[in-house]
Structures are given as structure tokens and as C-alpha cells.
């Protein structure tokens, strides 16, 4: 990989291959978030809750080298295939988008998260909602802008046209949020209390929040009380010289990336994420969700500072 820093904008890019079906092309890029962008605004977020600094000191220069955004392949077909199984095959829209921002496949069969999240919900969530976000952000961006996606989310104010800017914010945010969301889930464990993070992330959560149980209680409370549609994220504060974790709620498809921060663990509380199985009982969805959290995937994000 070759790091190329764009320091004036606080963003650096790293070229390199992509995992899974994502293939490197001549224009493949992955973007590394390194600092709060000039267009960040707290109005995009309804507020982080916890804020205790970790002991590990990280210089700003180190942060500049390491904080991460999402890999984006350029110039590849959007028609991608997920693993085949009884749950069916997750794909992109099935149409050739012919564009730069890819539609990653669902990394497991549609029914892999049963009974916590049903197959129909996963099919609609990936193949309709997620594909829709990607399709619309591609339509909104110029070819040059697509090459900088998703780092362009860290500097939305540089998009001059208000309508385009809002489209990129909403559809681009949806594309990134769902990409991470699908990757940090897995086949459910029988007992949610036995599904726990380890390694540096486990230590960091304990240090930050007091215990895993305390973190989960605070995170779940944020998810259950968020008014309207949005997300709850555990994220790392990008500009902090120390590795600081926060829980925050984000309206609509806003993302920690828009504040210059790195998402780690996100829960989609839009009704499309749970209504078929849980109806209006968002609380039951939130409580059950801990069974499908793919902690090793989250640990990897935290330890490598690179999103899947
Ligand atoms: Fe969603």
C-alpha cells in the first residue's frame, strides 16, 4: 500500500487491493480519515454520551497516518455476488450501474442472522435500501468526486450545490453506514452475554465505560430512545491525541465520518431494519442484536484502524 496524504484537507488516501469480490482496478482507492474536516458540524449529530480518554497516547501525526475510512473500488461492475446458501444469494441491484462506488455483497446468506434478523428483512435491506443508497450517490457525484468517495463525506461543504450536497450526505451516508453495519454482524450466538469483545477493544471499552455491561446499557438506551430514524454508533474520536471512544446518535444517514471520526460499531434503528420481525418493539430488536454482533470484526477495525 502507498499512503498519499492530503494534509490540507486532513485526509489521506491509501491505494491498495480490496477484499472479497472487490477487485483492484487502476483507480481503486481506499481513504484514510485523519482529522476533523473543515465542514464538520455537531448539528449532524445528536450527541455523544460517554467521553473518557484512554491511556494510550497517539500523536496527531500518528493519527494522520492511521485513522481510516472505507475502501472504494473504482470502475468495477456493481453486480456482485454474495455467498450462496439456503438463504439465497445477496447481490447488488442486478443492473449494471457502471459506476465507481461499488455495491459490496452481503457477506453471508440472507438467513444467516435468523432468528434475530429475518431473511426477508436482510434481503430488502441489502438489495433494495443499500443498493438504492449506492445508486443515488453515484448519480449525484461527478466522476472525479466518486474517486474521492467516501472521503468526500468529511468535507461536504466543498460541494457547492445544496441539492447535490444533501444527496451526497443522505445517500452517501447510507452507503457507508450500511457497508459497515452488514460487516459487523454474524450468525447469532445462543447467549448474548457470552458474545463479548476481546483484545485491545475489550480493554478500551472496559476502560472507557467501566464494563462491557455498562457500555451495552448506554448504547442500547441511546438506540431505544433515538427519535425517528437514525443510527447509534460507537466511534473513535478522530482529532483526539488519545484514543477516545464515544457513543453517539446520528439522525437519518449521518455518520461519524462527517465529523471526522471513525465508526466502529453501528446499529441501524430505521424501521426498515427491524419492523418485519419486531413491529414497533424497537427495544426487543436492540436487545436481541447483541447476539449477532461480530466482535472480532469490530476488534479488527479498532486494532487496524481500517474499515472492512
Ligand atoms: Fe438501514
From TrEMBL:
Q: Which GO terms describe its cellular component?
A: cytoplasm
Q: Does the keyword Ligase apply?
A: no
Question: Locate the Manganese/iron superoxide dismutase N-terminal domain: which residues?
Answer: 103-185
A single Gene Ontology MF term assigned here is: superoxide dismutase activity
Q: Which InterPro entries match?
A: Mn/Fe_SOD, Mn/Fe_SOD_BS, Mn/Fe_SOD_C, Mn/Fe_SOD_N, Mn/Fe_SOD_N_sf, SOD_C_sf
Residues of the Manganese/iron superoxide dismutase C-terminal domain = 198-300
Q: Which Gene3D superfamilies match?
A: Fe,Mn superoxide dismutase (SOD) domain, Iron/manganese superoxide dismutase, C-terminal domain
Q: Which SUPFAM superfamilies does the record cross-reference, listed alphabetically?
A: Fe,Mn superoxide dismutase (SOD), C-terminal domain, Fe,Mn superoxide dismutase (SOD), N-terminal domain
The protein's Enzyme Commission number: 1.15.1.1
Q: Is Oxidoreductase included in the keywords of this UniProt record?
A: yes
Q: Which keywords, in A-to-Z order, does the entry hold?
A: Metal-binding, Oxidoreductase
Q: Please give the Pfam families that the UniProt record associates with this protein.
A: Sod_Fe_C (PF02777), Sod_Fe_N (PF00081)
Q: Which major enzyme category is it? A: oxidoreductase
Q: Which family would the database say this protein is a member of?
A: Belongs to the iron/manganese superoxide dismutase family.
Q: Which PANTHER family match?
A: 37S RIBOSOMAL PROTEIN S26, MITOCHONDRIAL (PTHR43595), SMALL RIBOSOMAL SUBUNIT PROTEIN MS42 (PTHR43595:SF2)
Task: Tell me what this protein is called.
Answer: superoxide dismutase
The record lists the organism as Cyanidiococcus yangmingshanensis
Amino acid at each position: 500500500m502507498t499512503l498519499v496524504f492530503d494534509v490540507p484537507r486532513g485526509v489521506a488516501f491509501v491505494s491498495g487491493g480490496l477484499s472479497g469480490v472487490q477487485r483492484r482496478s487502476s483507480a481503486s482507492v481506499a481513504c484514510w480519515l485523519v482529522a476533523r474536516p473543515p465542514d464538520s458540524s455537531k448539528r449532524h449529530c445528536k450527541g455523544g454520551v460517554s467521553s473518557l480518554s484512554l491511556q494510550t497516547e497517539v500523536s496527531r501525526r500518528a493519527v494522520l497516518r492511521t485513522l481510516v475510512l472505507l475502501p472504494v473500488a473504482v470502475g468495477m461492475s456493481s453486480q456482485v455476488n454474495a455467498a450462496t446458501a439456503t438463504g439465497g444469494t445477496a447481490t447488488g441491484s442486478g443492473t449494471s450501474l457502471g459506476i465507481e462506488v461499488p455495491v459490496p455483497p452481503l457477506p453471508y446468506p440472507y438467513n444467516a442472522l435468523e432468528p434475530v434478523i429475518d431473511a426477508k428483512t436482510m434481503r430488502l435491506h441489502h438489495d433494495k435500501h443499500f443498493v438504492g443508497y449506492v445508486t443515488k450517490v453515484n448519480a449525484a457525484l461527478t466522476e472525479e468526486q466518486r474517486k474521492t468517495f467516501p472521503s468526500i463525506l468529511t468535507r461536504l461543504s466543498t460541494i457547492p450545490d445544496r441539492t447535490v450536497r444533501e444527496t451526497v450526505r443522505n445517500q452517501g451516508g447510507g452507503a457507508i453506514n450500511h457497508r459497515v453495519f452488514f460487516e459487523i454482524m454474524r450468525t447469532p450466538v445462543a447467549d448474548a452475554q457470552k458474545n463479548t469483545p476481546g483484545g485491545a477493544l475489550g480493554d478500551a471499552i472496559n476502560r472507557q465505560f467501566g464494563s462491557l455491561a455498562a457500555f451495552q446499557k448506554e448504547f442500547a438506551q441511546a438506540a431505544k430512545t433515538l427519535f425517528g430514524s437514525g443510527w447509534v454508533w460507537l466511534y473513535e474520536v478522530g482529532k483526539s491525541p488519545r484514543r477516545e471512544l464515544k457513543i453517539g446518535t446520528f439522525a437519518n444517514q449521518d455518520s461519524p465520518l462527517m465529523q471526522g471520526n471513525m465508526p466502529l460499531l453501528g446499529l441501524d434503528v430505521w424501521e426498515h431494519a427491524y419492523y418485519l420481525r419486531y413491529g414497533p418493539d424497537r427495544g426487543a430488536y436492540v436487545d436481541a442484536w447483541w447476539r449477532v454482533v461480530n466482535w472480532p470484526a469490530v476488534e479488527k477495525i479498532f486494532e487496524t484502524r481500517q474499515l472492512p
